[in-house]
Every structure is written in structure tokens, then in C-alpha cells.
């Protein structure tokens, strides 16, 4: 993490009484491999990361509750996450996984709700970013699954590549009864990439009232070694203009964020990037939006 954060952020400033980290993960490689963790750049993630590891860091950053989000698309992971949530007050909600293309998706959601910790299930997510189809979200079988998610009173988290944002706009327009939560602002081009339409696509999604977005995963979209808050600010400004604070929520993306910064630093830079907002607006970003959307 560059030294600019410590130079520009006062960690002793008052923070909201309740702060919700709306996006974090855990995994145990002895239970299940995380096949996406490959190559030398991700080597520091090939360890176990547990709630016991996160708890002291969350306390030090004045984070009171978190939303635990799925990492891989296997049916065993979500029951494990729900059991963790049932046993640990740090986890206020779980965004899990189920096979949206299954004809029995409604039954699968009901079964998850019946498990220990099932009352903590607040959303469903699929690794759309790993699908080759740009329009995977628009498949009829996926649409039936999304309808079941809506009927269950759950939100749907979108994790996708920037070029898949137009399909997210289309599906959110088709499913006005379902709240869509865009993870990581749709992976904005913080590191220079090919010309893209991220800002326009984000604005198109934000025009739909059943959408919100997470200020999460931004430090790892920037240069992992040289990034500064100034690199992130233009993209946060675009998101604030598009969604407004009442439809944005902060998420750390721990432990993936540790590729670029530790937990306290990510929380601190998040607070710095919304420091110019009113107290009410900052509270929305750091607690209110997540609490409302996920029913925490």
C-alpha cells in the first residue's frame, strides 16, 4: 500500500456507530481447493483465511458486521457459510450459491433456508465472470432461476467482466422484482486497458431502480504495488454520480484485497473516498444500504 493513505487519512476521525463490510470471503484449502487462485501474482492467497483471522482486523477498523460472499460454484460451500454465520455474530448475512439453471432451484433455496443459519441467507451469486457467454444472464434457464431468487425474497449479486455489463442491464430491466447488487463496480478500468464503455454501462444499470452497487474490489483493479487513493477517486465519483450514496455499499473484498492492501487500509481508504459526503450519506455507504438491501 502506498504511503499516501497514511499521509492523507486520519484513522482517529469519528466513524459511524455501525459499519458493515458488505463483501468478504473465507476459505479453507484443506476442505476445498480454490481453483481460481493460480499463478505467482495470487500466491499470497493460497492460504487458509478464516473468520478468526478477520475478527481482530475488523475490530481494529471499527467494522461491526460483515456479509460473507461465496467464492466458488459448488453446493457444499453455502451450507458451510450459513453454519459459520449461525455461530458467529460477525457475519450478519451470507450471499451464497445455487444452480440457477436447475429446474429445482426454488426447492434448493428453501432447503438452504431450512439449514442452521438459513435465516442469514440474504442473496445468491454466480461467477458470471467465469462464463464464456457474454449473455449468460439472459439465458431462459437462468431467468427462471432469477425469478425463484426474487420469489424467495433474496437479492442477486452480479460479479462479471466489464463487457458483460450490458447483459446485466438487460436482465435487471427484465426482472424489476429482483434487486441486483453489482459487485466491485463491475471491474472498472483503473489500470489502463483497451477502450471501454464501463462508465456508460454503469450509468445505464444505475438508471434502473432495482440496482445497487458495491464500492469493493477496487484496490485490486488498480496497480497492486503503486496504487493510491487518487487512482480510485474518479471511478468512485462516477459511481456516486450514477447511483448516489443511498444505493452504494462498502465492501472490503477481504482477503483478495490483501494482494494490494491490508484490511484496515482498505476500510480507511473507503472512508477517505466518501469523506466529502454528509454524515447521513456516509452512513448509507457504510451501513444503511447494505442493511436495507440485504435485510440485515
From TrEMBL:
InterPro entries the UniProt entry points to: Amidohydro-rel (IPR006680), Metal_Hydrolase (IPR032466), Metallo-dep_Lactonases (IPR052350)
Domain Amidohydrolase-related: 20-296
Protein origin, superkingdom: Bacteria
PANTHER family membership: AMIDOHYDROLASE (PTHR43569), AMIDOHYDROLASE-RELATED DOMAIN-CONTAINING PROTEIN (PTHR43569:SF2)
Family in the record: Belongs to the metallo-dependent hydrolases superfamily.
Protein name from the UniProt record: Amidohydrolase family protein
Organism of origin: Streptomyces yanii
Amino acid at each position: 500500500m502506498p504511503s499516501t493513505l497514511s499521509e492523507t487519512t486520519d484513522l482517529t476521525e469519528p466513524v459511524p456507530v455501525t459499519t458493515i463490510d458488505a463483501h468478504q470471503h473465507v476459505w479453507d484449502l484443506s476442505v476445498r481447493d480454490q481453483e481460481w487462485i493460480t499463478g505467482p501474482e495470487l500466491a499470497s492467497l493460497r492460504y487458509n483465511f478464516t473468520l478468526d483471522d478477520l475478527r481482530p482486523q475488523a475490530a481494529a477498523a471499527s467494522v461491526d458486521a460483515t456479509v460473507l460472499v461465496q467464492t466458488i460454484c459448488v453446493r457444499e460451500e453455502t451450507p458451510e457459510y450459513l453454519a459459520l454465520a449461525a455461530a458467529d455474530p460477525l457475519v450478519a448475512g451470507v450471499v451464497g450459491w445455487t444452480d440457477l439453471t436447475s429446474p429445482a432451484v426454488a426447492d434448493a433455496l428453501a432447503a438452504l433456508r431450512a439449514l442452521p443459519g438459513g435465516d442469514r441467507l440474504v442473496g445468491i451469486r454466480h461467477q458470471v465472470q467465469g462464463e464464456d457467454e457474454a449473455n449468460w444472464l439472459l439465458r431462459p434457464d437462468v431467468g427462471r432461476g432469477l425469478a425463484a431468487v426474487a420469489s424467495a425474497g433474496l437479492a442477486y449479486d452480479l460479479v462479471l467482466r466489464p463487457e458483460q455489463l450490458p447483459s446485466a442491464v438487460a436482465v435487471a430491466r427484465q426482472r424489476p422484482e429482483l434487486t441486483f447488487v453489482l459487485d466491485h463496480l463491475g471491474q472498472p478500468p483503473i489500470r489502463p486497458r483497451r477502450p471501454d464503455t464501463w462508465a456508460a454501462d454503469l450509468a445505464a444499470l444505475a438508471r434502473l431502480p432495482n440496482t445497487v452497487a458495491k464500492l469493493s474490489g477496487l484496490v485490486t483493479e488498480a496497480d497492486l504495488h503503486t496504487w493510491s487513493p487518487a487512482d480510485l477517486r474518479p471511478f468512485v465519483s462516477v459511481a456516486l454520480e450514477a447511483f448516489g450514496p443511498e444505493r452504494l455499499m462498502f465492501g472490503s473484498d477481504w482477503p483478495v484485497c490483501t494482494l494490494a492492501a491490508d484490511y484496515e487500509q482498505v476500510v480507511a481508504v473507503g472512508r477517505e473516498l466518501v469523506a466529502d459526503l454528509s454524515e447521513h450519506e456516509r452512513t448509507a455507504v457504510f451501513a444503511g444500504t447494505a442493511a436495507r438491501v440485504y435485510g440485515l
